[in-house]
């Protein structure tokens, strides 16, 4: 009996076990088809996370644009908001583009 790392959760399990005791991964059935299915599931989880990041980037971008055009004069933020606003908008826009590209490449993988 050997101890292997479960492909599902990377915890140590016996190679005799049919199902991982930690995550329920079917160890006995890790043929090409089930591994491919698992890879697809993981990819769609990654895409979902990236889509959430993309939404967050859009929110930050809009906030940055808002801060840029808002009249901060007289407020305690007047000194740095005209710089912080465009900086936030610019950084968010770059973040958005990177996330967009990562989603594109993930979806292209078969
Ligand atoms: Zn497991």
TrEMBL record:
<protein>
    <recommendedName>
        <fullName>Zinc ribbon domain-containing protein</fullName>
    </recommendedName>
</protein>
<keyword id="KW-0812">Transmembrane</keyword>
<feature type="transmembrane region" description="Helical">
    <location>
        <begin position="78"/>
        <end position="98"/>
    </location>
</feature>
<keyword id="KW-0472">Membrane</keyword>
<keyword id="KW-1133">Transmembrane helix</keyword>
<feature type="transmembrane region" description="Helical">
    <location>
        <begin position="50"/>
        <end position="72"/>
    </location>
</feature>
